[in-house]
Design brief:
mainly alpha, extended, single chain
């Protein structure tokens, strides 16, 4: 038996990954909503990092937003396919608020 973890931790993003990601978000058609959201997440992670002395919150923000940006073309394709989502009910409306 090996004492190795089954999943290796993800390597940290490159030092300039956040700046490159912000530039990518600025160039996107969703920039009006995405850039302020990214900056808000980044500011919160920066504050968390200051308190925890860890870069993990900053890395998590970069990874999360990289995944969002990568998934955007698939979401656009789905929405452009003409699928009607109007008949669906929001899960929060069914379950109520969760804590």
């Amino acid at each position: 038996m090996s004492a190795q973890p089954e999943e290796a931790p993800a390597p940290p993003p490159a030092p300039a990954a956040a700046a490159r990601l912000r530039e990518q978000l600025l160039a996107d058609r969703r920039a009006d909503s995405w850039v302020p959201a990214f900056e808000r997440d980044w500011a919160k992670a920066l504050e968390d990092s200051r308190h925890s002395y860890s870069l993990a919150p900053l890395h998590d923000v970069v990874r999360t937003w990289q995944l969002r940006a990568a998934a955007a073309p698939a979401v656009d394709a789905y929405l452009d396919s003409g699928r009607d989502e109007t008949g669906f009910v929001d899960l929060d409306d069914v379950l109520g608020t969760r804590l």
